[in-house]
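BUG: 3D viewer hangs when loading the predicted structure for this chain

Environment: internal workstation, default settings.
Expected: structure renders.
Actual: progress bar stalls at 90%.

Input used:
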Amino acid sequence: MNLNTYLDQMFLFSKIGGRSAFLDKMYVETTKRGNILVVTISAIELFFIARLLVLYGLPQNMPVLERHYFYAYCSLILVMGLVWFASAHILGRPAYSYRFKRYATLLVCQGTVLPLIYISWLDQYTYGQVSVYFCALICVALYPLLEPLWSFVFLMLNQIIFSAGIIVYQPDPLVASAHILNTIPFVIFMWLISRQFFKNKIHEYEDAHTIKLQRDELYQLYSEESLSDDLTRIGNRRYLRKSFETYRKNCIHSKLPLTMMFIDGDNLKSINDKFGHNSGDSFLKVIAEALEVHSKNPATAIGRLGGDEFVLLSEGMTHEDARKTGEEIREYVVTHTCFEDGRSGSVSIGFIVLAHGEILDFKSVLAQADSLMYAAKQSGKNQVVSL
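Structure tokens produced before the viewer hung:
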């Protein structure tokens, strides 16, 4: 089983936006951890370097063992500089792939661990302890957010390096064997910690991803509900006002005319009183359907202002096209409504076509179209009137 299959089966990356997106986020997190590691280890190593310089002066004046310690401390400071560089210029930048970031992380970790392993080897001549190696393992477990398989391979490789050196540097074979046997369970324990950290991050990322999806769904639902009419499912007043501002800007920029058509259902109150509100609602739905059928132009918006009042907005429509559309809407309502007494429903329509330099605000244009609709009412209803 390759690494990608292992990760997909073990952590179900498909649920959280994909492996690449997750690992990119993990390496950004590793960058933040790396900065803390750099400051901590650098401060410790600078203390030891300063101590040796105070005691012995220049490196050539130091005893052989202390000189080796000095060079190990200096190499670790150099590695910390590389860690800082990798954190600032590689791991935190989206330009690099997560695979490249992974290999950079492994190299940086290896550069950090090797000097610490070497210090543990040198300790065999003095204290006989391997506590520095334990610190190296803890850093590897806590600092980089490596995939579990890569973390396991990395820890095992360094355990082999450590064991080979202990045999050489530790004069007592029994102590060397004890060090090797004692560090193996610790290596496994550190791998389990690293693996658990990685899994916890996946769960955190999955939770955040789920919350984001739910928030986006709620926002989409809210946007749709807040811009649509509950009964007819077309736009509402808020939608019309928003569309008007968009069309107004487009028309002014492109020097196109703007059309507003005001449609009002005739005799809605008497229909509700005589045939019931269900018949009145059906009548309103037919009007909305008529608007939808005759507003296929993508630069057209339709909506219900409230009650029996509807509006159609369109950019680039000529006066002749607007009248033709208004007549088609009027005829559609007449032919698609029939009440219990055999009569058909009707609408009165007023529309205005404004040149790009004549377009005012939504309220002013609506008032003009509204007055033309009332002119249609006064002329006997079931008519289309324009300026």
